[in-house]
Amino acid sequence: MKLWPSYNKQAPRVGLNNLDLIIPAGKTYGLVGESGSGKSTLALALLRLVKLDAGEVWINGQAIHTLSQAELRAQRQHIQLIFQNPLAALDPRQMIDNAILEPLNLHKIGTAIQRKQQLRNLFELVGLSQSLANRYPHQLSGGQQQRVMIARALACRPSFLIADEPVSALDAPIQAQILNLLRELQAELGFTMLFISHDLAVIQFIADIVGVMYQGELLEQAENEVLFNNPCHPYTESLLAAAGAGIQTTRLNPPEQARGKNPLAGSCCYSGSCLRGMAVCSQQTPTLRYINKYPPHWVKCLHYEN
């Protein structure tokens, strides 16, 4: 699966610049970066919920950017999104059973009897009590609301799941429950997942591959252990330093020097903040390149150009 989201001029969304992601089937790609780096824009671009000015999006060999509205509607049963705020995403006038059944009804999957059976299976799959079926979203706890969103996203058995900050609004014990649930469901159902978070500890726990974003660009990408044990980009180093030893943090708060100004065209996007910056950094744009192939480690920094 290869994804090329493009630059997007529509404010207030952050533009995505020359992103090239490859997510192996059945794996979890953890995308981390501070607020405003473009992570949520990427999630929306993959589903064509924001307009692309240029570039391509390919998922499972399907060119998402070329699909008609009817084709896109059909394709969306295979690509689902878990939103950051479940209470805002759920219809407050819709009972929980109808909220979970809605994707099955929209895509006309199975008969009415089969959908009811699938509903019962989904409640069991995500650990929700059947007694909650006739309740409204505001009558559920935050953890229960997020389980409803997961059940809804998995109703059509998607092959690709996008989780956009799915645990950021939850308390630590509930976060652990939801993260463990996602890992168990992925092992059972085999879907591929893009997991977006500010929280380095969450990314370290759940991701197989980690990508670091800054101002709409991918600055570093490596397998989980490689990136956390050997960060190579100055921005990644600053994030890990801000998180502290052992990555014991509940929210990503980069140090002040990690918050750079928008650079001029033709320069590194991090050149205004980099503590290891060189004169050439304000004159040349680096490319994302291998610094190690086994295991693969990519860095976008002029220190590694040669």
Describe it.
The protein is α/β, with parallel strands linked by helices. Helices cover 32% and strands 17% of the residues. It is built from ten helices and twelve strands. The strands form two sheets. Strands 6-7-8-3-9-10-12-11 form an eight-stranded mixed sheet, sandwiched between helices. Strands 2-1-4-5 form a four-stranded antiparallel sheet, with no helix packed on it. A hairpin with a 2-residue loop joins strand 9 and strand 10. Helix 4 runs parallel beside helix 6 and helix 6 runs parallel beside helix 7 (172-189). The radius of gyration is 20 Å and the shape is globular. The model is unreliable at 1-13 and 248-263 (pLDDT under 50).
In N-to-C order, the SSE pattern is EEEHEEHEHHHHEHEHEEHHEE
**Rg, alpha carbons:** 20 Å
Assign the structural class, choosing from mainly alpha, mainly beta, alpha/beta, alpha+beta, or little secondary structure.
alpha/beta
Provide the spatial order of strands within the biggest beta sheet: 6-7-8-3-9-10-12-11
Low-confidence spans: 1-13, 248-263
Quick rundown:
By secondary structure, this protein is α/β, with parallel strands linked by helices.
Give the SSE layout.
Elements: E1 2-4, E2 21-22, E3 28-32, H1 39-46, E4 56-59, E5 62-63, H2 69-75, E6 79-82, H3 86-89, H4 96-106, H5 112-125, H6 142-154, E7 160-164, H7 172-189, E8 192-197, H8 200-206, E9 209-214, E10 217-223, H9 224-229, H10 234-243, E11 289-293, E12 296-299
Parallel strand pairs: 3-8, 3-9, 6-7, 7-8
Antiparallel strand pairs: 1-2, 1-4, 4-5, 9-10, 10-12, 11-12
Helix pairs in contact: 4-5, 4-6, 6-7
